[in-house]
Amino acid sequence: MSTGTARRIAARALGLAEFGHAHWFFGNLYEAVVRVPDRLADREGGASPVGVGSPVRYYLVGAPLTLPAALAAAVAGWGDRGGRPWLVAAVVCSGVGVGLTAHLVRTVNLDLFFRDRVPSADERKALLRAWYRVNAARLVATGGALVAARVARSRLSR
Question: For residue 118, what pLDDT is reported?
């Protein structure tokens, strides 16, 4: 594969990654600003993972492509020394975001939103506090991935 072809493939993959990271970042920001976790936690009997109001429904659009697109861009664009640090940053930040999301789902979301029993007021408060803290870190990671993907794409598109 020629260098020009590899750069074009990487730039296109980064375009997908940018879209996915923007979708992810602004979705997480929206959840925090309008306090979606508080609203879902107030539901009696828990929420359905794909029911009305579930964030899973709007993340299914872009989430499955985001990290793979960043990885594909890093592989295709690896030969470009100017873009390489930004490609690495995009992949690392994206991976951190995925890891934080997995941690959040496993340790908070299942107990807070998809439970058979309603948590006590103290449990609910602690779970919500944990959700907002991890989400803040996730916003930093996804924002970093978005910026890194954008810079990498601009360097590879030259």
Answer: 77
